[in-house]
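From the shared-data thread, chain only:
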Amino acid sequence: MKKQVYNPYLPLYEYIPDGEPHIFNNRLYVYGSHDKFGAFEFCENDYVTYSAPLDDLSDWKYEGVIYKKNQDPSNKKGKKVLFAPDVVQGPDGNFYLYYGIYFSGYLGVAKSSKPNGPFEFLSHVKYKDGDTIGLKKKDIFQFDPGVLVDDDNRIYLYSGFGPDKYFPQIKKSQKTDGCYVYELDKDMFTVFKGPIKVMDKKGLAKDKSVGHEFFEASSIRKINGKYYLIYSSINGHELCYAISSSPFGPFEYKGTLISNGDVYLNGRKLKDALYPLGNNHGGLVKIQDKWYIFYHRHTNYTNTDRQGMAEEIFIDNNGLFKQVEKTSCGLNGEPLKGKGVYPSSICSTLIPKKGNVFYPFFKIFKSRKTYITQSTKDEEKIESQYIKNIRDGCLIGYKYFDLSNTTSITLNISGHAKGKIGISFSEIENPQYFVNLNINNKRNIEQITIEFPQKVSKTPIFLHFALKSGKLNFYSFELK
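Structure, as tokens:
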């Protein structure tokens, strides 16, 4: 019997953002960066991967470390982090891992005979003359590679960066004006053709992408004979896509796939984001006639503690995707069951009274903020996430549940607070069912039960915190 799976789809102690989903040997593998919980920098841990059988996306297997930072000869001491990778199966049957080394501007390639590694360093991506791309004067700054082996076994590498402001880590001699494609030779690392520009950055675009121009996170797929470039726009929080009939472009912008705050969905504006915002990166995959978009969310009131998320997404007869909402049920394929215990941190909506913002790099004033965190250290492999510092006016929501046989919800909380907690089944309506709150227990968890007669097979649940004083920590809830 299949288990339920909710978002984030991996264990709650795991922080793998920038997820690139690929099917190899009838299993789904997700390759991504590897954040260290509580770290100052992005991606401080070594690469790991998880895989799942195609007929059960709840059965994720930890495949272990597949590549270490210090395996790259230019990073022998392992002091530089490895940014978002991609993996492809080459024409020779081997698997190739492409990655960037911090803000170096060049790319590495590692090789394995198996999709779950371990991978061994092969080369840096090079020109025909043997020079590493990205290091020559006026070279294109290489970042976030996306790789495709086409039906005719030609190999295409997409890379680039398009910031709208100065990055001190990048040399002024390196070009950061958009996304480029390179055709690689059969050795999987030598440039055969290119670079050819396929998308412009902000200020350069003259097409429909204006307002959603390329920033980073190149991801490439071929769908029904067309090439789909998925990327993170200059807005940061969204994944967009563009389509071309040729791998060399031109690519035409088609829209937003997902925002980690549901911005733009049904006209939602940035100021009304449903979840704290941050950068985004992911890819598309088709599994048994269903399409999914993989992306990530942010936790711990910082930009650098990110977790993988996934949603089913729909394609129409014209090959176009519409933006999909962020949910708690994700890969489950249906609403979560209305009976059982759930972690509070699987919320799809988290809005403090003053609204959401982009999470900062510096963890300043955390004691004043509401955010998801954990009580254990990085990689302790214990699920200890909870929502911290819930204050007056906070709204926490979960999409979706089957409440057809459910009559109450019990919250496991701690803190020091007076006021009320209410429930609604729409984010825009006032809460219908209340419980008075007077709690003075910062260390031990107390249970608060709210009865509700709602009988529906698919509904969101929204918790409204109307506190006269104090703040709360919220650990889990049980539906009965």
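The chain has two domains: 20-332, 336-479.
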